[in-house]
Amino acid sequence: MAESALSKKKLDGKVVIVTGGASGIGEAAARLFANHGARMVVIADIQDEAGQRVAEFIGLEHAIYIHCDVTDEEQVKSMVEWTVQNYKQLDIMLSNAGVLSRSDQTILDLDFSELDRLFAVNVRGMAACVKHAARAMVDGHVRGSIVCTASVASCSGFEQFIDYFMSKHAVLGLVRSASKQLGAHGIRVNCVSPYIIATPMTCHVLGMDPEQAEEVEKIFEPNILLKGVALKANHVADALLFLASNDSACVTGHNLVVDGGFLLK
């Protein structure tokens, strides 16, 4: 009998890095990747206690936490090199670390210091992760998968939060260009663009506690077409797993939107 889709380990033996893996979408992905047989999941974040808890929950034989601030390219480079030195290769990079706008900026009152803060993580940090993961894969002759977490903001505009929307458009440009440049090495580069998820970061920006996640979901639920569905981190993690695994072996340069139909409204 053929192995069922539910029992199939889609990342069996793979070495994975998940940036921003201490909470939210990154945490959900790290757990899912481990459940699908990843040999090692390297959780990279600046939330040390939370990241260590995630690694311990998964099991330290299959996960490890490393402090890494993606705004510092040297830290990203060192983290990738450490992973390759200890686990012999890097198969998958999930560049997920990101931040939200701290103010409802428009172009008329754009604060460039705030834009620089946000771009340092969402654009520069993501580019550093793609760069150093790709170099490790090329050097190791690994036909790897690089997946970035973008947002529905990557393909839409809005009346506010211009710095955030600009940053996610940049992520899409990074993915499309890097996929063209790395295809010759057999390396795939894709991104997932979710609608608003009630992660701890989202709750904090809204002035709510993570325990109020269901209330946050109810705020945004009317904006999606699929009624009765609350978008959660595990929905995004499923899409990330698809792009990380061989299920998407012929998919590159793609922006997979997970929004319950929000962009169609």
SSE-based structural type: alpha/beta
Number of helices: 8
Let me know the number of strands: 7
Radius of gyration: 18 Å
Strand content: 5-15%
Terminal residue distance: 43 Å
Largest sheet: 7 strands, parallel
* Pattern of helices and strands: EHEHEHEHEHEHHHE
The overall average pLDDT, rounded, is: 94
What's the shape? globular
Strand order of the largest sheet: 3-2-1-4-5-6-7
Summarize the structure in short.
With 265 residues, the chain is an alpha/beta fold. It has eight helices and seven strands. Strand 5, helix 5 and strand 6 form a beta-alpha-beta unit.
Q: What is the strand and helix layout of this fold?
A:
Layout: E1 15-19, H1 24-35, E2 40-45, H2 48-58, E3 63-67, H3 73-87, E4 92-95, H4 112-139, E5 145-149, H5 162-182, E6 188-194, H6 200-205, H7 213-220, H8 233-244, E7 255-258
Can you offer a commentary on this structure?
The protein is α/β, with parallel strands linked by helices and 265 residues long. The protein has helices at 24-35, 48-58, 73-87, 112-139, 162-182, 200-205, 213-220, 233-244; strands at 15-19, 40-45, 63-67, 92-95, 145-149, 188-194, 255-258. The protein is built from eight helices and seven strands. Strands 3-2-1-4-5-6-7 form a seven-stranded parallel sheet, with helices on both faces. Strand 4, helix 4 (112-139) and strand 5 (145-149) form a beta-alpha-beta unit. Helix 1 (24-35) crosses helix 8 (233-244). The longest helix has 28 residues, at 112-139. It starts with 14 loop residues before the first strand and ends in a 7-residue tail after the last strand. The mean pLDDT is 94.
